[in-house]
Amino acid sequence: MFRCLSRLLSxxxxxxxxxxxxxxxxAEMRGHLEExxxxxxxxxxxxxxxxxxxxxxxGGVERSKEECRDIRKGGxxxxxxxxxxxxxxxxxxxxxxxxxxxxxxxxxxLAIGAVTSIFTIVNATLLRPYRMDHPExxxxxxxxxxxxxxxxxxxxxxxxxxxxxLATIEASREAPVRLAVTPGSNDEPYRWALFVxxxxxxxxxxxxxxxxxxIPTDDTPGAPVVAVVSHRFWMxxxxxxxxxxxxxxxxxxxxxQVVGVMRPxxxxxxxxxxxxxxxxxxxxDVLAGPAFxxxxxxxxxxxxxxxxxATALALGENLTxxxxxxxxRRQRREGPPPSPLFAYHSAxxxxxxxxxxxxxxxxxxxxxxxxxxxxxxxxxxxxxLLMAAAVxxxxxxxxxxxxxxxxxxxxxxxxxxxxLLGLIAGGVSLLVTFWTAPVIGRMVEVSPxxxxxxxxxxxxxxxxxxxxxxxxxGLSPARFGARGNLQYALKTDAGPAGRVRARWRVSxxxxxxxxxxxxxxxxxLFARAAIAVAHVEIGYDVxxxxxxxxxxxxxxxxxxxxxxxxxxxxxxxxxERVSLSQYEPFGFxxxxxxxxxxxxxxxxQTQRVDADYFVTMGxxxxxxxxFTADEARxxxxxxxxxxSMARDFFDGGDPIGQSTVAVIPPAEAAPxxxxxxxxxxxxxxxxxxxxxxxxxxxxxSGTIYRPLGPPGDNPPxxxxxxxxxxxxxxxxEDALRRIDARVVLYTRNLRDELDExxxxxxxxxxxxxxxxxxxxxxxxxxxxxxTAFVVSQRMKEVGVRMAIGASSARVLQMLVKDSLRPVLIxxxxxxxxxxxxxxxxxxxLPGISPHDPTAIGGAFLTLLVCASAAVIVPARRAAKTNPxxxxxx
Length: 889
Known about the structure:
With 889 residues, the protein is an alpha+beta fold.
C-alpha cells in the first residue's frame, strides 16, 4: 500500500519539479562551484582549501539549490514540491517500519472512529435540518412559558382550528407502540407512532412514495383505522414490497391497514421521525386509551403553518383571543382563565440546526468527554511511538543539517509524517464508524427511522479530527528533532536530546496509564451500580401498582376533589385500594435531603402520604403504627422511618418515640429553601420495611414517611393497587373525568417506570464499558509497541551487560523495572483521579460507594497485570538473545 501511494505522489510531483529542471539546476550549481574553486586556486590556495572555502561561501549546495528553486518557481510551487517530497519520504519510512506504523494507525483509527460515531449520532438527531415544505413558516403553539411538548387540550385545539384565519392549525400525539408485520408478535421492540389530525401531513408537505397519505375523512369517529408507514420501515420490514399497500400491520396486536408509504425526505417538525402515522381518531382503538372528542381534554401538540403575511406574534395574540372568547362563560363559572397562549418558532428553518434540549447538553459533554479522553490516549500512544522512533533518527537529522537543511524544514518533515499517519488513521476510522454508529445508536435508543449513514458533515468532522490528531502527535518529535546537535549527531546515534525524549516518553506512558485507570475504574463503578440496583429488594409488589398524576389548568385541586376522586376510583370493580402520595414512586419530583453518618453521606428521602398508603403499597409496618386519618389530614408532627434508617441511626435500638432530629438536625436546614419543612422535628411512631421508591443517590439511603397534610399548589398523586393495571387505569381515568374534566391525568405503570430506571443504569454501564476496554487495549498495545521499540534500541547495551557477566534474569529485571516505573506512577495518579471523580459521580452511582474498592482496586490490578505482560514479553525476548550475536551486530 505504501509503495502504491509513493508512486502516486511521484506522479503528482512531476508537474512541479521535473527531472530536466533538476538536472539543469545541478549543472548550474556545479558550474558556479567550479568557477569559485578556480578563482581561489589562482589566488594561491590549495585545491582542498579552495573547495572548502567555496562551499562555505555558497552556504551549502542544497541550501543554494533551494534558493534557486524558489527564485525559478516561486514560493507556492516550491512549497508544493517539498510537501510531495516529504510525503514520499514519509511513505518510504512507513514501509520500512510496518509494525509500529500499524500499531499507531490502528490505535488512532479506533479512537477517531469512536469520536466520529458519537458525532454521527449527534449530527443525525440534532444537527440535520427538519425536512418539510417551507419550515420557516411552521410554528408550534403552547401555553406561555411552557414547551410545546406539554401540549394543549384537544378541545382547545378544535376551537383554534376552526376560528383562526392567520394559520392552518393541526395537532399530533406521540406514543410508543409495538409494530409487527405478522399477528401474534409480542416481542417486537417499541417504535414511535404519531397520531395526527386529518390535515397534518398535507399541511407540512408530507407526500407518499407509495399509495396515499392520511386525509381528513380518515380522522372521523367510526372511520376505518388506517396507517402510513415510514419509508425505512417499509424497506426493512416489508423488503420494499410494492404490494404492501392494502396489507395489514399489527400495532399493539391490533390489525391496521397500510394505505401509504411516506417519502424518505420527510420528517416534519419532530426530533425524530416516527415509524408510522395514524389518525387521532384511532388513538383509543390502537392504544385502548381515552378517545379524543370535542369535550375531551386529552393533551396534543399543536402545530401550524402561517398564512402569507402573518407573523408568529400576531398568531399568538389571535389564538389567545379565540380561546378567551369561546371559553368566556366557562372561565367565569370555573375561575380565572389559564395563562395566555403564544406561538413561537421551535421548528427551525431547513438551513439551521435543531435546537438542543435542556438535558441534551450535559449528556453530549459527558459522551464527548469520554471519547475525547480515549482520543487523547490514542494521540499520546502515537506520540510515544514517534518519540521512540526519533531516537534512531538522530544521525539522519545531523546529516540533513550538514547538507544545509533549516530547522524549520526538519520540523515540517516530521509534522508531515505525523499528519499523514493521522489522515491514514482517519480513513480507516470511517470503516469503524460504519459499524459502531448503529450499535451505539441502538444502545442510546435512537429511533430506527434515523439514518446514521455518514454525510458530508461527518466526513468533514472526521478529516478535521484526524488532522488535529496528526499535528498534535507530531509536535513533540518535531520539536526535539529540530534541536538536533550537528556534530554530536554525526558522531553517535544518541545525544543530549535523547534524554529529553526519554522524559517525554515516560510522561506519555504515565498519561496512558492514568487515563486508562480513570476510564476502567469509572466503568467498574457504573457496572457495580447497575448490578447493585438490579439486586436491590423492592419491598412491595410493583406489578400491581399504578400511579395517576393530577395537573390542574388554572385552578386548585382541593380537599373536596381529592375525597371525591378517592371514592370514585375505589368503586371501580378491578381496583383493590387507592391512596394519596405527594410524590409518585420513580417520579420527577421528590423531597430529598442529605444526612451525615460516621462522616459519610446518607441520602434521606421524604415521602408525604395518607393513612392508607402503606396498605395500598403493600409495605409492612414492622414496629409501632401508621398514621391515623386525622394525623394525615392535619399534617401532624409524626413520622415513620424505614428499617434501614432505624438500624443505621439508632444502633439497633428502638426508635419509637424518638425524634427525627437524630437523623436530620433542624440546625442544618438552609433558610429560605424548600427543605426547611422536611427538617422540621417529628416524633417517630413506626418502622416500615425497606422499599425502593426511587433509585438511591448513593451507597446509604433511607426513607422518612410524613403525613400528607392539606393539599397545596402541587396536587398529590393517586396510588392505585390492582391486579389488572391496564384495564384499571383506563377505568380510573374515566371515573376521574366524570368528576372534573378540567384535571389533566398522567397514568403510569410502576413496573414500566422501575424497568426504565434500571435500564438507564444498564445503558450507562454498557456505554462506558466499551470505552474503557478500548482505552485498555490502546494503552497495552502502545505500551507493548514502545517497550519493544525501546528494547530493540538497547540491544547493544544488553549485549555489553551480558558479555561482562550480567545474567538474563538481571537484564530482564532491569528492562521490566525501567518500563513499569512510569506505569506505576500513572496508575497511582489515575487511582487518585478515580477517587475524586467517584465523589463527583456519587449521585449517579445508586447503591454503592463512590470509592468502591472492588471497582477501583479491580481496575488497578487489571491494568497492572496487563501492563506487566505487555512489558515482560519484549523484555524477555531481549534477555534471551545471544550476547555474542548482539556484539557482532
